[in-house]
## 1
Amino acid sequence: MQVSDEVAIDIRNMNKWYGNFHVLRDIDLTVHRGERIVIAGPSGSGKSTLIRCINRLEEHQSGHIVVDGIELTNDIKNIDKVRSEVGMVFQHFNLFPHLTVLENCTLAPIWVRKVPRKQAEATAMKFLEKVKIPEQAGKYPGQLSGGQQQRVAIARSLCMQPKIMLFDEPTSALDPEMIKEVLDTMIELAEEGMTMLCVTHEMGFAQAVANRVIFMDQGQIVEQNEPREFFNNPKSERTKLFLSQIL
Ligand code: ADP
Ligand code: MG
């Protein structure tokens, strides 16, 4: 699991408000290619907002966000370019219910990337094999378990050949027996060198996979460290309190 010197995401002095509510405060974060970052923190601390800002599902009001060398501003061309490089997987899989698994995976490649259908289907099958559900390709999302649906969502993202993957609590809506199959898929992606930012409460995953854990509270990055130090030797009182509540 190599981390390169190349910068994948650079966030400088970034602030965001929802109306009067200052949700992200002076965020500075540099992510190098190949990094696997887990973002932890209490509910409402701004974790989802932060990762949604990285593909402009939310807009920041000051500071800079640069993704793969492209600064996120109101320029729609740049936003589209960034979105085509950044995959996102949500807590609630957000699959299209009226499309088959295969169609979910080929829709964007065919219509956004203009990939020929046959080629898009071959790529989709490759990624459905990778997430270990090629036999579900002809089914509809409603016929699949939650864990299978989330693996389709991951495969669908991979079909766009992203350089960066963002995960927002991908296992929080799953029954316990399905969490592992999704985490295993994420571990495999990490091992292949994908740059990943994962909001998750799965601290076992953080310990096994992350090269860095970031702790957020009240819109700020309070502390960050490599996992062993983060869990064994937390510095701030807020981190200690958080860890005492979840571990
Ligand atoms: P987390 O993912 O850490 O639970 P969020 O980023 O979802 O935190 O939310 C951070 C804060 O911003 C919370 O107080 C939440 O209520 C508020 N918030 C989130 N989305 C919106 C929105 N669209 N409008 C107003 N407030 C929001
Ligand atoms: Mg959230």
Note: The longest strand covers residues 7-18.
## 2
Amino acid sequence: PASIVITIDGPTASGKGTVAHRVAKHLGFQYLDSGALYRLTALMAIRTGVSLQDEAGIAALARTLPCQFQHGHVLLGGQDVTDAVRAEQIGVSASQIAVLPQVRQALVELQVSFRDGVGLVADGRDMGTVIFPDARLKVFLTASAEARASRRYKQLIEKGIAANMEDLVKDLTERDARDSSRATAPLKPAPDAIILDTSEMNAEQAVQQVLEWYAEAQ
Ligand code: C5P
């Protein structure tokens, strides 16, 4: 039988990555950061000079993305791009190519291939709606734009990257609008998803809530 999947979807900087990663660790499951695949594709396009509007060209890159995930490090063509791929500008570029249906289609197989072994926790925008519709538990993680911008701000400052709250709120709002309004696989909760608003919650409280729901779904 196909292994168990927990999907955690939600808007930019809602804390999905942290929560999904910790839940996977608790359960001994694999973890898929699907946003990283869109980010890697965008980075690859920028580095090889393929225009972000060239749908077929970018889909071709996505189909044969030379990426590896090793102990929290991300490699592209054998090169460590862990920090480069997290850059705010790459997130924006990722959301631009994520509207292209051929690019989304090209990444389906790679995403599904993470489902091996005991179980998988997958985070993204369309994990519960498109990629793993048969997931055991679907969570839609949200938080107010202000809470998300201030979390992103702290993350960037901790990493020694300059950041500005006003720009971050603007970025997040634009990215939310683009992710929610696109025709293919827009950001929206699956009909059977449970909504978790983490505006007033820390990461560990969110992790415990997801684990509780997972235990109840058995
Ligand atoms: O989650 P993260 O911010 O890393 O994702 C970067 C961008 O990739 C998102 O803004 C979104 O446009 C796109 N994405 C997507 N579908 C996913 C994951 C990410 O469209 N499953």
Note: Strands lie at 4-9, 30-33, 67-70, 73-76, 79-80, 119-124, 137-142, 194-197.
